[in-house]
Amino acid sequence: MRKGDQSRRELTARATAMFDERGYESVSMRDIAQSLNWPKSLIYYYCTGKAQLAQVAAHECAEAVLSDARARVEACPSDSRAQLEAALSCAGFWRGDALAAARELHTRYSPGNLAWRACLRAQLAPALGALCNDIVARGVQAYELYTPFPGQMGQVAVGLTSDLADALAQLICATHDEAELLERADALLRAHRCALERLVEAPFGTLRLVELEYVRDAARAYEFKR
Q1: Taking 50 as the threshold, does the pLDDT of residue 1 lie above it?
Q2: Which residues bind DNA (predicted)?
């Protein structure tokens, strides 16, 4: 790897870590330069400003998530419903266990870090949507799914699932009563499943992306780390 490429990777990795931990709005280019022990002018050799740096960092994060999504799809049986569920499992904070989810909730899904979350979502949505479009199209050809718009429904499914992730994150971050949290989370999960299954005419109960027990465990881990 050339030194310039290595330095660029180092810069984006450090920016990602700082945006995660401190929030996009709270991090300045000077902060990033100081953490790398670089002169501030060197950062501007690689990007025009913080907004462009955030886009590049978010793009690299999205590439990593997309690679994970493709691996999960390839590991699935040929059933298109299972493949769609596997791909959509990368559209929210539930890619790992409850502790990993809690870390995501404290960083990328934090109420104080909405600008960074929006940047990450904007970078991931087109590529993950294209992957899901392909899965839906294959499912329609195999008569496992049905929609008159197979080239668009995967993208719509990604949008719905990202919205679900944001709504659940806001709920977990703002609600301290577990019974209330679970009641409201259950309603969100049921609505998402119903909408997703109707989009592609999947049989009722076949697309169960996130279980309520997982949300409960993630919320408990989040409270422990609060």
Answers
A1: no
A2: 28-47
